[in-house]
Amino acid sequence: MREEVALQPEAPVTGQGRMDVAWGANTGDETDQELSQANTAQGGEIFEQHYTPWRGTLNPRWMRNWAILRHHLLGIFRKGHRPWTMPTRIFILIAFLASLSDAGMTLLSGLVGSSEFHGLFGVSRDNLYGHVLGFFPRNVLYYPIIAALLVGSVISEDREHGTSALYFSRPVSRFDYVSMKFVSVALIQAMVVLGSYLLYFLAEVVAYGRGWAWMVDVFPMFLAGILAGLLLIFTYTSIGLSLSSVSTGRFFPGIGLLAIVFGTKTLASIVKNLFEREILYLVSPYDCVAHVGQAVIGTQTTYDQYSWTYSLLALVAMNALALYVLATRVASMEVTRE
Amino acid sequence: MIPDITQQGKPAQTAPQPSVPNAPVVYFQGVSKSYGRIHALSNITLGLTGGVTGILGMNGAGKSTLFKLLMGKLRPSAGEVKLFGTNPWKNPAPYAKVGFVPEHEKMHDWMTALDFVSTFARLHGMTRQEAEREAMRVLDFVGLADVAHKEIGRFSKGMRQRTKIAHALVNDPELIILDEPLQGCDPLARTTIMNVIRELGKLGRTVLVSSHILNEIERITEQIVILHHGKLVALGNLHAIRERLDQIPHTIRIVGEDARNMAKDILDHPAVFGLRFPNETELLIQTYHFGELHAELPRLIVENNHRVHLIDNPDDDLESLLNYLAGGSA
Amino acid sequence: MSRTDEVPSLWSGLDRKAMAVAEFTVRQQRKRLSTWVVLLVGIAAMGVLTMFYIDSMTRDYEAVDNDGDSYDWDMDGYPNGQERLYGTDLLDADSHPGLLSPPIPPDDASVWVNEDDFDWDALNEGSVGYDDNGDCNVEERTDSQKDRNGNGIPCDIQLDLNRYSGTYLISTDGNVDEDPDDEAYALEAIHRSFVLAIGKLGVVFLIGIFVPLFMATGLIRQEMTSGTMHFMLAKPIARGEVFLYRILGFLAIAWTYVTLLIVLLAIVTGLAGPSEGVFRFADLGVWLSVWLAALLAVMVYSMLFCMLGVLWKHGMVLALPIAAWELGMILTTLGAPDAAILRFSVIGWAMNIVDAGAALAWSDTPLLIQMGMWGGGNGPLEGAEALDIFASTPGLNLSALATVVISSLVMLGQAAACWLLGSTLFKGKEIE
């Protein structure tokens, strides 16, 4: 009501009145004496208010989900979408270029025409496996770190700032919310892992003029590589997002993912080298994927003590646990700033 | 030397004094602060010693920036900031005589009020016992002695604000800076905090309080500083400022059916010193005695049978007032 | 004010602030769930490794007949070794020591397994070894047959250390120490490998890098983002001090944790490991070096990560590639401990300290590896390859003590550099 003071014709407009208008508002202080003196308004009016419901048609669900997905994906490339931090984007670019090293070498070997060179870098069963699942440097320096950088700022940041309200106050279900986050994080990784894989394959075709016969020959192997890549991405993403959903910090999920990937790998390789037991590899996400990948692509397996199906089971268990944590955490997520 | 692990050594002396005698407690000389192209503060010149001063301004007027410059959290883009005669940026020595209540709501919720106050008291070089004693003293001063052992996370907003004030007072500072201490408090907490601030003023401390609500400041002090868009627009006694505001020419806008006829009748009034007709139906009246004229207007209109749609004070909004002030002080 | 006018020293002032901030940090971390999760996961991981270790210490190792002399080729009931000892024909069933006068009763085959163990106690260069079962020192053989390595001593092993490569040249007279005790060797080698593996990879690397990564990255940054840093920075305390004391508080937790972990591991392995007494005191030197390396590594990493946190609000983005780099470096130290690239890591220097400590406490490790690899001519024995992986010579080509001193100084320097950089950055930060 105080805003009206100066506008009433009978109210003397003085310096005090003007300052009241400027800063006097909203003390919420009903016992205040000065306030009641200054408030000399007599009349009052209540305007009739109407609530006009929105009568448009709601876009289909996939279109709303696509908007979320697009928002996250385009953020990698340009402004105005989800602000992935600059170094995250730079790192993704660097990792992408670095994982193209074998494609470059294949092109080079095609130019030079050296078959030894081709044996080292060109498309073969081992090299296709190595492109996706090789440990060093790809699964030390590139892929897990991309995953860690991405998951660090997905759900945990929404929890920290309460920005999940922006989604949940719209016709977006929690399942849509979390699955689109999942898909977008996975797709960004796929751009690096599988994108470079495709280019590598293409480099071989271009450099050696491979025809259909070769492609048909190699195709099952190629598909197996993609499958292995999808498995890797899915595993990193589900573990990373479940960590992201249990924390509010920016640091914890990323560090946690790396700690899990590297920590279990290190422990398992200590036990392998020291005690000749490979059983601990079953708790290492990377090794489980690698073992399954070796079986699927058909390279020489480096895990001899048990069948790859155990690794697959362990992988399913890991992902199920991670997705369970993710689902329950998101379902019970409070739409507030924590 | 063996570290004083048990913290039972000799009690601390008052922290080393910055050695600039007779310097104003707070001193800004042509200070500007900008972030890229946004000017948070421009060309502030201000010196304060003693008494309670209210810093009035809207959100984003630069109140917090002013305080952060003073506390060495920000570096001025231009000009000179002095706290007890020394530059506070990168020099924590003068903080020994300062208590600062930041505006941030987030606190260390896991601590008890006593822990919170005494931990930070120890940063003044007090021993553990000394710090606890002082902490209890200030908590009592702000009326929280009975909840001193409760966790801050369970406090209400008013209690949190008072804990923050206690933490700032623990070193018995000469200058106390309170950034929006009343924000979000209920009337009871508000009154308590206001009493605390008035009390501090009576003790002869220099107190700076910021607020965007005049009424709050008015109940605490008469000495005010008004900031607007980073500019210092007014400084001094509240009443003096009000009187000066009365001297500003005001404009009254009348929209009616025949503006020219209306003007004839109104022009006779002694308070009017200027008239303008932007168009056929509109009349702009300028006056130095706004209140008087405003009281007379309805009578004049009714007596002369004019048909009026609207009487309005076009420049009675904050923006024009502040622009006037900014122009006047520049 | 009730303060007296006694003049406090600069030290007591500093010390009170340091204690206040450090104590504050410890209590803050103690109240966080994630702290406990991280520390418990660390203990659990080390526990799993230790379980495997205890299992391998208590299981039975198959006694392998490395020289094959427990077989009885001619099926006359006398093992080959016994026949060789008495000079009868190994392949002729009608020629065996039972036909000698007086007749010799046949030995059980197990007598000729592990019957000629390493007698290399001296571990000096030159002549070592002793022919326990007497199958070298057979009377019918000539002196030159007994002294194949030509060092003038019959039935011994000549050891020559190649000072450049650090490896030993083993030249044997044949049938000397040719059937070592597999279990004794395996226990010793696996025990040493385990101490080195869990010390290097477990405590110094995994704990040393991940605990600071989880707990120290946000020491300053989290307070800055939440705005609570204002309380501390409004007090008469320099920002460099805040940085240092926060780290000190973190180290109070992390160092205690690491120390506790190492003491536990030292006790468990000391009791479970193979030893003549109840406890293996010889390992304490290694544990001491692991402890030193872990403390230094934790300190450098916490300074580094805290500095990255101050540098930028997304400091984690910088910290993660560094952690991955360090993982690559520790793998490098296992294979190539003197690679120059290790100078550009933290873990490389820490590994130098552990390797040097191990070289001091177990000076015979390189020899033990080669003994195992040789294995009486039928190597490698179980455990030798593991020891070969996890043991490496200190990388600086200096004496062990000098390596420890220099590496420690370098790591202190790294910590100091990170602190200086961190507090300089912190001083220049405007805090919103």
Structure commentary:
- The complex is a heterotrimer of chains A (338), B (330) and C (432).
- With 338 residues, chain A is mainly α.
- Helices cover 67% and strands 0% of the residues of chain A.
- Chain A contains 15 helices and no strands.
- In chain A, helix 5 (101-112) packs parallel to helix 11.
- The longest helix of chain A has 35 residues, at 174-208.
- In chain B, helix 2 (113-122) runs parallel beside helix 4 and helix 3 packs across helix 4 (157-169).
- Chain B is elongated, with a radius of gyration of 26 Å.
- The model of chain B has no long low-confidence stretch (mean pLDDT 83).
- Chain B is 34% helix and 26% strand.
- The longest helix of chain B has 16 residues, at 187-202.
- With 330 residues, chain B is of the alpha/beta class.
- Chain C folds into three domains: 13-61 and 183-427, no CATH class; 70-112, no CATH class; 119-176, no CATH class.
- In chain C, helix 9 (284-311) packs parallel to helix 14 (400-428).
- A three-stranded antiparallel beta sheet of chain C has the order 1-2-3, with helices on one face.
- Residues 1-6 of chain C have low confidence and may be disordered.
- With 432 residues, chain C is mainly alpha-helical.
- In chain C, strand 2 and strand 3 form a beta hairpin.
- Classes of the chains: A mainly alpha (338), B alpha/beta (330), C mainly alpha (432).
- The interface between B and C is large, with 50 and 41 residues.
- Please, how many domains of chain C? 3
List the total number of helices of chain A.
Answer: 15
Helical fraction of chain C equals 55-70%
Largest interface: B-C, 50 and 41 residues
Indicate the radius of gyration of chain A in whole angstroms: 29 Å
Sum up the overall morphology of chain C in one term. Answer: elongated
Rg of chain C, rounded, reads 29 Å
Q: Assign an overall shape of chain A.
A: elongated
Structural class of chain A: mainly alpha
Number of strands of chain C: 3
Oligomer: heterotrimer
The mean pLDDT of chain A is 85
Largest sheet of chain C: 3 strands, antiparallel
